[in-house]
Amino acid sequence: MREGIAAVIDSQPDMEVAGEAGDGAEAVRLYRALRPDVALIDLQMPGMNGIEAIEAIRTEFPDAQLAILTTYRGDARLLHAVKAGARAYLLKSALRKELCEAIRALAAGRRYFAPEIAADIAGIVGQDSLSAREVQVLQLLARGYSNRDVGLALNLSEDTIKGYLRTITAKLGANNRTHAVTIGIERGFIDV
Q1: How far, in Å, CA of 88 to CA of 41, rounded?
Q2: Which residues form the Response regulatory domain (predicted)?
């Protein structure tokens, strides 16, 4: 995938690949050493993930022009990336033209979100998000914990966990706990 992206970038007369990283920590080191105009960062990388890499780069370089490049459209991932400092969110399925447009927009100091991503953002605004505790509960449910076991793990009563489960299913528009876990994974609230 990196070779294909590098070939697209190198084929443009106004762009060149400054470097490539295999993981998040290396991306941070290379950014620090090379200071590229724009950095494309994969969301899923070994060790330090893309969001963590963006946060680390933005801490040192607040004006960095960073884009997430991913296969995931999940809204929680999208919000985390934007909150971390990503100025663009591109799908790996993006067309060559779109990738180049995004790089040029970032190099000019503008944000870039593909139309389908912009639609996702618009759909997210006004939706209820899950609290940190609700995400914890959902993560344990995804691991197969019963309400009782979730309560024991979080030092809460089983009735409190049932209340959280009602709130989670309502916020996600889920029919049951299994459906809530499925939606939680699809939307990027939890990983399995």
Answers
A1: 10
A2: 1-107
